[in-house]
Request: fold
Amino acid sequence: MNLEEEKGEDNTKEREDEDWSKPFLEYFQQAILPKDKSLREQIRKRALRFVYVNNTLYRRSYDQLWLQCISGKEAQQVMREVHAGVCGAHQSGPKMRLQIKHLGYCWPSLVSDCERHARRCHACQINGDFIHQHPNPLHPTVASWPFDMWGTDIIGPIDPPSAKGHRYILSATDYFSKWAEAEAYKEIRAEDVVRFFKKHVLYRFGTPRRIISDNRTAFKSIKVYHFAHQHKIDWRYSSIYNPRANGLAEAFNKTLVRLPRKMTRKTYREWHEKLPETLWAYRTTERTPTQSTPYSLVFGVEAVLPLEVELPSLRIAIHNEMPFSKQAQLRLEELEALDEKRLIAQQNLELYRAQMTRAYDKLTRPRTFQEGELVLVLRRPILGRHHGPKFSPNWEGPYIIDRVYEGGAYLLIDKDGNHPMTPISGRYLKKYYA
Reply:
């Protein structure tokens, strides 16, 4: 792999043969000035801050320190020693500059050379901190109508398992109405995924246009592919190690885990029995994006809760006093108004997405890569649950960008031309300086 020098930037190594102090030495030793008038005036004015003592040129800094002037080759030696030498602490560029100044050295490009030297240090790059700012603006997933698009995910393995041995939950959430389905499993295989979507989605709400999932083995299988192909479903996978790409399913998973934990007793072994109750609570609670309950967006009316039967609410009391014909007419009117209710929910969704996008983009630090660029990859998402030694580096590489995908995902190759991983989100990459 050819690690090319950073293009468009000069450095002290390239200026080893160019002695910047030569005009000043000629001026102090022999009173010689350049023939060019502007250069002559420049040297004469700048020389006021220099002094020549014992065959050595010194420059006075703004805080009245006298600093020894050194050439490009000597500057390289000083930077190497200060940054990674015997007493080097792999400091950043600004701290290197201060350290060199305290040691009493200077040259014209001290600031930029120190920053460039520290930035190109391999040890510093692979041990650098994770960049928390988002690399790309938010691209929210938009659903135009109920049950047009679903997000699905697998929760687990869950410890402790349920009393019946369930360790996993397979969930699916409608992007428009936020209606959710979930079921507990001991193990989740590809046939379980197909059976779940047939039972809970296709046979209840029709064939969706698109399904979004992560890269679990149960989702990326021949059986799931044939199921999607047979029903002409656009099954898409989120970028690996980037749950934000399937954010709706991830958000529902938090509720699906939190509510049973509050409902179960100390052993938590009966959590599988609380799933229907959890789903009921989720479906009958107003969701912030739509400002409506999932139940009302599906059926056109709010669900009758057990409390309303025990302590009759106003609508129950009025409904019970109506004749059957009036009840039927009222129900038809509610169904007629359902489309309008969904249009209002869609407007609320768009307003909510706009607010989220503005808030998200404020924290964005643009970071894109082009094909052929060298990058490092964050080790934590790659290693997953594996915990390496305490002093393992945070990043590994460098790798080369082989392909750029929409949405900020990248396919990488190593120095041997192999693909070490599936496409990865740009959030877990950073540029490598050779």
